[in-house]
Amino acid sequence: MLKKRFPIPLFPLKSIQSNISLAFSLLILAAIVLTSLVSFQVSVTTVEKNSKGYIEEIIKQVNLNIQSYVDNMENISLLALTNKDVKYYISDNSFISAEDRRTYEKQISDLFQAILYTRKDIASIMVFGYNGRFVSDRRITSLNPNTKLQEQEWYQMARAAGGKSVVTSPHVQSLIKNEYRWVVSLSRELKSTDGITAEGVFLVDLNLNVINDICSNINLGKKGYVFIVDKNGNIVYHPQQQLIDSHLRTEQITKVLQASSGDSFIVDNEEGKRIYSVQDTNFGWRIVGVANTDDLITSKSDLRNSIILYSLYGLVIPVLISIWLSHRLLMPIKELQSDMKQVEKGNFNIQTEIRQMNEIGQLGRSFNLMVSRTKFLMEETIANQENKRKSELLLLQSQINPHFLYNTLDSIVWMAEQKQHEEVVLMTSALAKLFRASITKDQELVPIQVEIEHITNYLLIQKMRYNDELNYVIDIDDAIHSYKTLKILLQPLVENAIYHGIRNMYGMEDGMITIRGRQSGDQVVFEVEDNGHGMTPEQQGRLLLSNTGDSRTQGIGIRNVNERIKLYFGHEYGIQIKSEIEEGTCITITIPKLD
Q1: Considering its fold, how many domains does the chain have in total?
Q2: Which of 1, 100, 141, 364 is deepest in the core (most CB within 10 A)?
Q3: Any idea what the Cα angle at residue 50 is, between residues 48 and 52, rounded to 5°?
Q4: In this predicted model, what pLDDT tens digit does every residue of 504-534 receive, in sequence order?
Q5: Contact 545, 562 (CB under 8 A)
Q6: What DSSP character marks residue 288?
């Protein structure tokens, strides 16, 4: 809570001359600061404009280099287009003999090998005739049987281009058996001598590291780089391709596609202020240069420091300003001291007012952070203790009573020996459902209908164990079945009623447990009543204060059920016990109605 402060006079000095001098000094200071800021901003804008021009020229040169490289690839395709052996090989002409055909294949393969000998950057050269013939730069070439030629992107693009060269995005070339290379493909459809009939497709695969060599040697500052995208926005090259593929880094692809060739735009985000320059190639790629302004504008800090220095030289600070500053500085210190005393008294809601972010303002800010952090840690400690108690209760809830399991399994074995097969199936099914509900941890609140099924299975097992010694009635209003309740809420109470109320009633009337459920206003009320031995008032009090009785048969305990209710729903809900000796016990559970 912020304390109310009274304003401090701007000029507390008594002398009018001193006030006027101070006022002029402040006006001069304001004028110098304003002029310095404008000069600095104009200078920075000019330098940024020059930086954009520099980046554009660099990207133009990259564009020319890549374009020149692709042109060389097209020249190679022209060799195939004009070579008479290639044209004859992919035409409809039939060879006189297989030897005649192998002679043409050798001549074409020798031509391609000669090209590859002078161009180490080319991965492979191939020609695919529509007549089914195929030749490459290798004498013996086995095509991958799992790769369909007609489904390849470069093949489809070449046929659609109608004789023009097309360049694909980087892809894995899997045409040759047992060979998988990361390449960029240039392809074009080969025409017959008349220039009308399409006879095949020529393919040149370019090693992708050539693009990397061209782009990686570009100097755009320490953090600058070049990347390439195709017309669909797919990244052709990026120096941090692995981070892009793993979605650990993103680029401004949308803005890059929207920009025109030769345009530049600036992006200011958490990575800093960056300049993007875009250039288009004539084969569908878009080359983008990215540079950090702090790298390019190397004189920015020097320019700022010079302006500040000359501004200080141009201002003669009056002596009286020191008096004003001392008064202005003294008041926040006294206020901070007063606020600290409030914290010493235990008031952690106080926040000191910060007028200026100077040294004293930073001290006040640190004080506010300290108070807020202390308050947060105190609340966190309380919450952790509360969660710890809840976790301990959940741990107790998940424990399985070994004696109950042993006695139930022993009863199943006895019934199996007595050939009571139906009883064995019924009791085993009920035990499985019971423990499935006990070990489920996905949710703490379940519909009351689920809790009814759980306690029904539990009582069915106990009824089969104790025969006529135990009878029970479940009378729960159908209207509350869809409301939510804590999981395994009733079992501990029924278990307590069996083991401590009616189990030892030998020779007396049969034990009876009645479970009732109804709604009362905005609450749901359960009752677990037995006609057992009952308890004294002292025993009733101890039952809610600690886990009493035989720990082997008490389950998670009535006290833990009571604490779980209060932890999840509030202290106004919980358990009440009403009991009389030799009359029985009635335990009432109250929880809120939750849809």
Answers
A1: 3
A2: 364
A3: 70
A4: 665 556 788 899 999 999 999 999 998 888 8
A5: no
A6: E
